[in-house]
Amino acid sequence: MGAAPFPVPTGSLLALGALLFCIGLFGALTKRNLIIVLVSIELMLNAANINLVTFSRLGVAPSLSGQVFSLFTMTVAAAEIAVGLALLLALFRLRKTSEVKDLNIHKW
Amino acid sequence: MNFVWSWPVIAFYIIALLTLCCGVIMLSVRKVIYMALTIGGVFIGASALYFLLGADFVGVAQILIYAGAITILIMFAIMLTNHEATEPGFKWSPKNIAAAIGSVLLAVVLLLAIRSTAWPTATTSQTALDGGNSNPMAIGLVMFKGYAIPFELVSILLIVALVGAVILAKERKEDE
After folding, report:
1. What's the ipTM?
2. How many helices (H) and strands (E) does chain A have?
3. Longest dimension (CA), chain A
4. What value, to the nearest 5°, has the Cα angle with vertex A36 and ends B91 and B113?
5. How far is Cα A75 from Cα B160, in angstroms, rounded to an integer?
6. What's the gap in Å between the CA of B3 and the closest CA on chain A?
């Protein structure tokens, strides 16, 4: 790992992140099940993490800040999915559904 | 961009292909539980990528948090709600078409922007980045020396989120 500094081309890594982000965006916009919408949002956060780890090597002063920031992002994602799934369980107990189209109480 | 076909590059393209395949399968399968399984595949692929980039600690944290905790949590949520749920097939409704056009347009714009930029290749190796220590040790040093206050704030956020999740998911008396 020490001899070859960074063999993987940066553009390919960023392209992978962009494609994963777009897959997550499409899933979050079109899926019907609320759990899958949450999963797609996790996918988008994951794509952002890949970019953070990629960029942590580049720049004038490369440092570990990108990796530390991606750890913080993971923590926030874990908190988000925990609260989201708790809301989903509360909703399911109330209305016996987990579909996005049934969440229209506040719609007018 | 001069291409060097070394083993890490080949491994990167295989991992990237598998990760994207898992993502596309996630969009196309019908049963919700299979979607949760394929998202586990995407998370494991991303962690393999982190190992390939030399970010060992982030890779292990990715496996522990995403592939371990979040995937299992999602499966629990699917089992606790209607676990037989299936997604209907893709219909060409205006909303879906707009979503597809938007996503594809965003992907094309991003890929063109990435392609037209000359990215610098990193010159420092991971061992130089870690300052001679192992990767987890270096991350610990950076986190507790430079990022101590964000670390404490994130721990408060986690406590609040977990207590809030328990309170939200608990069965309340006035519901009956």
Report:
1. 0.86
2. 3, 0
3. 62
4. 80
5. 12
6. 8
| Domain carrying residue B62 | 7-134
Q: Is residue B127 located within the same domain as residue B155? A: no
**Nearest-angstrom CA–CA distance, B81 and B135:** 41
Structural domain count, chain A: 1
Which chain B positions have a beta carbon within 8 Å of A82's beta carbon?
73, 161-162, 165
- Comparing C-alpha atoms, which of B46, B53, B54 is closest to residue B134? B54
Count how many domains chain B has: 2
Percent of chain B beyond pLDDT 90?
Answer: 37
Task: Give the Cα separation of B176 and B164 in Å (integer).
Answer: 21
**Which candidate, B109, B10, B40, places its Cα nearest to that of A19?**
B109
Is B175 within the bounds of a domain? no
CB contact under 8 A, A71 and B139: yes
Do B58 and A77 make contact, defined as CB atoms within 8 angstroms? Answer: no
Token pair listed for B42: 């995407």
A69-99 pLDDT, tens digit per residue, is: 999 999 999 999 999 999 888 888 888 877 8
The b-or-e profile of B29-58 (16+ CB within 10 A means b, else e) is eeebbebbbbbbbbbbbbbbbbbbbbbbbb
